[in-house]
Design goal:
alpha/beta, eight-stranded parallel sheet, 2 domains, eight-stranded mixed sheet, 16 strands, about 300 residues, Rossmann fold, about 30% helix
């Protein structure tokens, strides 16, 4: 193992990523967390003065890996598109400073894939993806081999047939179907993956199958929620880490304030699912999985990339 400090920019990260089994890294991480070999403090959110943005810090330590790390992610408001950057500092062996952009996309997608592997029906065949950018594409790449998918629907308001983006989707999923609306995409889906940067709901949960699994990720928008908070009252709710997610995820915070939902209603998290210490979903009710991103996820993948 290299003992010298390592700095990885975006180009270096892109070169190393194909050599990292990101899904396996996430799987082992949550096993370590479930067995109390890792520590995940709550993320901290600092708002910049004059509504100029915010700064999120994600910490984590893994005793099995022998490392401590911190991901630093500013969100800077400008006159146009906001500036979103992130770097991760890995302490231990190796010592590493790493551009977090591309690896964040991969670990986010792999975390969702792990949740689908643990929560979706074994005979799930129909998957819907809302969103069409790099994050959505990474979700599909990590998901494609987990179930015998027969139908793959993608919807994004900016995705058009004949476009370069649509050609890219056809190259990674030859049988993909472009849905005409979010409702059309999800109405028969066994699994619905929400992969957007929206701060507001992007899907009508009343259109879901009774036992559909819906996954949702984070964005930098304050209190972002890709589903209506009221959905949580009827759904079987899981998350990446029950200690921190309910106070961070927008729809969970709002559901608690406005709909009487309680964090105790979370049935399990990825750590508990990974070691079999929480119940699996029952039939007949939709399932909602929410991830907000953990410092430990960043630490795991950056350690693998730097090793």
């Amino acid at each position: 193992m290299n003992t010298s400090p390592i700095t990885l920019d975006a180009t270096a990260v892109e070169r190393l990523l194909p050599h990292v089994d990101v899904l396996q890294e996430m799987r082992q991480l949550f096993i370590d967390l479930g067995n109390a070999h890792a520590v995940q403090p709550p993320q901290t959110l600092a708002f910049l003065p004059e509504d100029k943005g915010d700064f999120i810090t994600y910490l984590g330590a893994d005793s099995n890996a022998g490392v401590f790390g911190a991901k630093l992610s500013p969100y800077l408001v400008t006159g146009g598109k906001p500036i979103i950057t992130a770097w991760t500092v890995l302490m231990g062996q190796p010592l590493c400073l790493c551009d977090a952009g591309g690896l964040t996309t991969e670990r986010t997608a792999a975390t969702t894939a792990l949740a689908v592997d643990l929560l979706a029906r074994q005979d799930a065949q129909h998957i819907a993806i809302i969103g069409s950018g790099p994050v959505a594409a990474a979700h599909w790449r990590h998901m494609s081999a987990l179930r015998p998918w027969q139908q793959v629907y993608v919807y994004s308001p900016n995705l058009k047939e004949g476009s370069e983006s649509w050609a890219q989707w056809q190259s990674i999923c030859p049988n993909v179907v472009l849905a005409q609306s979010a409702d059309a995409a999800v109405q028969d889906a066994d699994v619905v993956m929400l992969c957007t940067s929206s701060g507001r709901p992007v899907v009508d949960h009343t259109m879901l199958k009774s036992n559909a699994l819906v996954t949702s990720i984070s964005t930098n928008v304050h209190r972002a929620h890709e589903v209506l908070p009221a959905f949580l009252v009827d759904a079987q709710v899981y998350c990446d880490y029950r200690v921190t997610t309910p106070t961070t995820a927008g729809e969970m915070v709002i559901a608690s304030e406005d709909h009487g939902w309680l964090a105790d209603a979370v049935l399990g998290d990825l750590a508990e699912l990974s070691i079999g210490t929480c119940p699996l979903p029952d039939e007949g009710r939709p399932i909602f999985f929410r991830s907000v991103g953990l410092g430990l996820e960043d630490i795991a993948i950056y350690r693998a990339a730097c090793a």
